[in-house]
Structures are given as C-alpha cells and as structure tokens.
Task: inverse folding
C-alpha cells in the first residue's frame, strides 16, 4: 500500500499494488503446467518404446521384418525425445537469462539468401518434395546486428513449418524490407493455414493445432515458443496472419538503425 497525505496530514489517496502477486502467481501456474506438459509429452514416447521393446522380447525379435519395423519406430521415438529435451533446455536457458545473444553485424540480404538457399537444397533433395521458394529482397546491403546462429534457428523453424504444413508443390515467399526504424522479415506459405481460434496460442509452449498429426511429422510444439523467445531476445516482435486453406504469414520485426558505411564489416555470407 502507498498512502498519500496532504501537507495538512489528511489522507488524499491510497494505492494498493496487487500487480506483483498476480504476476508471480501467473508465473507459478505457468511453471506448474509446463512441468506437467513436459512429463506428459515424454511419457507418450516412452510408453510406445516400452511396448515395442516388450513385444520384441516376447518373440518378435525372431521375425526379422517385424523386428526391423519395431526397432525403427523405437529409434524415431527416441530421436523425438532427444529433440524435445534439447528444445526444453534451450527454453530453460532463455528463461534463466543464461542465453546471451552473441551479436555481430551482418548483411541481412546475404544472410537470408544463404539460409533460403541451404533450406531449398535440403528440402528439394527429398525426391518426394518440390516446393518453390521466392525471395523479395532489397537491392544492396542491409546491415543489422544479430546472433547469427539463433536467428538462423528462427528462420529455419518458420521455413520448416511452412513446408511441413503445406501440400507439396506450394510456394514459400521470403521477404525483407526496412523502414527508418524497423527491419521486417516475412515468410508466407500457401499451406493449410491456422484456425482463427488457435492463432493466439500458436507461440505457447507445446501448443499444436493437431497433436497427433504434428507428432507424426516430428513436431514437439516448442519450435514457435523458442522462435518467439529468440526474437524477443533481439528486442523484436513476431506476429502471424493466417487463413485456413489459403496460407500463413509470419512477420518478424526487429529494431533497425540504417547503416551505410558497410566497408567496416566483413561479410561472411558473400563469397
Ligand atoms: P511443431 O513442432 O508442432 O511444428 P511449432 O511450435 O513449430 O510446433 O508450431 C506450433 C503449431 O502451429 C504446429 O503444431 C502447427 O499446428 C501450427 N503451425 C505452425 N506453423 C504453421 C504453418 N506455417 N501453417 C499451418 N500451421 C502452422
């Protein structure tokens, strides 16, 4: 409580600060639900692994075809758990403030071109996929200070989702633009879209529109939560627009100060 008195000593007002209590309660509630989610998410693959191993032990081991399938499912589930645990560690490091961005000046045009090229190569090396990637970048150089490895993770996460939640053959559009104070990266796909009721929760930890389907696609439901935290670590924001059956667009907005004397910096992405 704060009590305000006039010079005469009369009480002129009282302000009660309830903010801290509700804020810490909210944090505690979030923490509890996070732990419960983690346990749940890890128990599912562990239960699957256990039942496959039991079936192998009970005789399936002597049937090579069956045994091969069971071992490969067990391996998939194990990889899924490893991915989830490393995602959780990333989030926890950011929560504890232990993840300091290692910022360096890079030419964002070259940085994004390099990422998109690499992603395009990996995606289209899968003979069942044939996505198109289009880039709309400013001519010349746009210099900004970012943590290259973390921002690569952000762009990779969004590109991976764009492909994962789109029918094959669609176009993924990546654009970069700047205003006097902002740098804007947009990634748009022509995929299945996100229902309006799910949009506000899309950056929540473990939130998935369709749990079963995304588990099969190797998703942990943590990618966008990590993405959100990394962008925040850069002082930026991330937003999403989506229409079911039409597509989804993510927009990352980072603080930007125009810099023209690019000669001072080495451009590691230009050959
Ligand atoms: P996941 O590991 O499940 O992909 P994310 O945190 O990356 O987790 O994404 C959360 C959920 O948001 C996904 O499960 C999916 O339902 C939805 N989503 C994300 N990106 C897209 C997209 N480009 N198109 C449609 N749905 C998407």
Result:
């Amino acid at each position: 409580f704060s009590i305000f008195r006039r010079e005469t000593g009369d009480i002129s007002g009282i302000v009660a600060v309830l903010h801290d209590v509700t804020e810490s309660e909210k944090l505690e509630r979030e923490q509890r639900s996070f732990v419960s989610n983690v346990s749940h998410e890890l128990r599912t693959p562990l239960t699957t692994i256990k039942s496959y191993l039991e079936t192998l032990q009970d005789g399936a081991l002597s049937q090579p075809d069956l045994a091969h399938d069971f071992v490969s499912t067990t391996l998939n589930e194990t990889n899924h758990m490893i991915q989830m645990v490393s995602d959780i560690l990333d989030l926890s490091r950011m929560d504890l403030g232990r993840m300091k961005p290692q910022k360096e000046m890079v030419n964002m045009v070259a940085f994004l071109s390099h990422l998109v090229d690499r992603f395009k190569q990996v995606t289209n090396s899968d003979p069942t996929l044939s996505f198109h990637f289009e880039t709309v970048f400013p001519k010349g150089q746009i210099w900004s200070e970012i943590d290259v490895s973390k921002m690569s993770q952000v762009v990779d996460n969004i590109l991976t989702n764009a492909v994962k939640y789109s029918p094959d053959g669609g176009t993924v559009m990546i654009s970069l633009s700047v205003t006097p104070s902002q740098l804007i990266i947009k990634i748009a796909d022509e995929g299945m879209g996100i229902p309006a009721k799910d949009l506000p929760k899309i950056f929540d930890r473990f939130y998935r529109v369709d749990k079963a389907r995304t588990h099969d696609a190797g998703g942990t439901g943590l990618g966008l939560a990590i993405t959100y935290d990394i962008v925040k670590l850069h002082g930026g924001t991330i937003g999403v627009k989506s229409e079911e059956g039409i597509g989804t667009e993510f927009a990352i907005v980072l603080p930007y100060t125009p810099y023209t004397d690019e000669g001072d910096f080495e451009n590691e992405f230009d050959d």
